[in-house]
Amino acid sequence: MQEEHGSPTDRPCVSRRRFLLTSSGATVTSIVLASQFSKTGFGEELLAQVAAYERKKVASLRDLKVDTPAPIFYPFDATDLNSLAFIVKLGVPASGGVGPNSDIVAFNTLCTHVGGDLSGTDKTYLKEHKILGPCPLHLTTFDLRRHGMVVAGHATQSLPQVVLEADGNDIYATGILGLIYGKHDTAALPVVI
């Protein structure tokens, strides 16, 4: 009986051995090229792009209660709806957190996917997991302990984090880490975080 597709050496398919050898070579090449064009090596600090804005008092330590988000407007005033943000004391240390326990963080309330409104933090802040979401449009959730990184959903960028600093009992906002949805540009300054 004759094979319909010809002999095994004539077939257009790649053998498993050839595939593994080729893909291994491609992987090694990619890693070598990426390391040649990288500005930082392994183990070095990475620079985050932070847009510096006017320093503004946004809260007092004594007014914040664990797992109770409070609305703030930053970096602009209440006339710019893209400035609606919230500040929350998580009760656990967080990346970029301030205060005695490094647990106070603030984030913009617009989802980075298509600008879904996350401002109803009483409904979207899940205190047991310290996440915000899901976004009402496409169900993205963000981890507030890790710079607002995406946990699930369609967004590909972290939630913009308001950069905070504590001065005695007062908490000030000084910039934004990330691009706020609806803004086309940010006057970014490199800051080591």
Written overview of the protein:
This protein has 193 residues and is an alpha+beta fold. The protein has two domains: 13-42; 47-192, Rieske Iron-sulfur Protein, CATH 2.102.10.10. 13% of the residues lie in helices and 31% in strands. The protein has two helices and eleven strands. It has a seven-stranded antiparallel beta sheet with strand order 2-3-4-9-10-1-11, with no helix packed on it. A hairpin with a 4-residue loop joins strand 5 (125-126) and strand 6. The longest helix is centred in the first third of the chain and has 22 residues, at 16-37. The protein is elongated.
List the helices and strands and how they pair.
Layout (H helix, E strand, L loop, with lengths): L15 H22 L9 E14 L9 E4 L10 E6 L14 E5 L12 H4 E2 L4 E2 L8 E3 L5 E4 L8 E7 L2 E8 L10 E5 L1
Antiparallel strand pairs: 1-10, 1-11, 2-3, 3-4, 4-9, 5-6, 6-7, 7-8, 9-10
Largest sheet: 7 strands, antiparallel
Per the CATH scheme, the topology name of the largest domain is Rieske Iron-sulfur Protein
What is the total number of structural domains?
2
Calculate the terminal CA-CA distance, rounded to whole Å. Answer: 70 Å
Per DSSP, the total helix count is 2
Reading side by side through the largest sheet, how are the strands ordered? Answer: 2-3-4-9-10-1-11
Strand content: 25-35%
Category from helices, strands and their pairing: alpha+beta
Order of helices and strands: HEEEEHEEEEEEE
Q: Percentage of helical residues?
A: 10-25%
CATH class of the largest domain: Mainly Beta
Q: Which regions contain 5 or more consecutive residues with pLDDT less than 50?
A: 188-193
Name the CATH superfamily assignment of the largest domain: Rieske [2Fe-2S] iron-sulphur domain
**Computed Rg:** 23 Å
Average pLDDT, all residues: 81
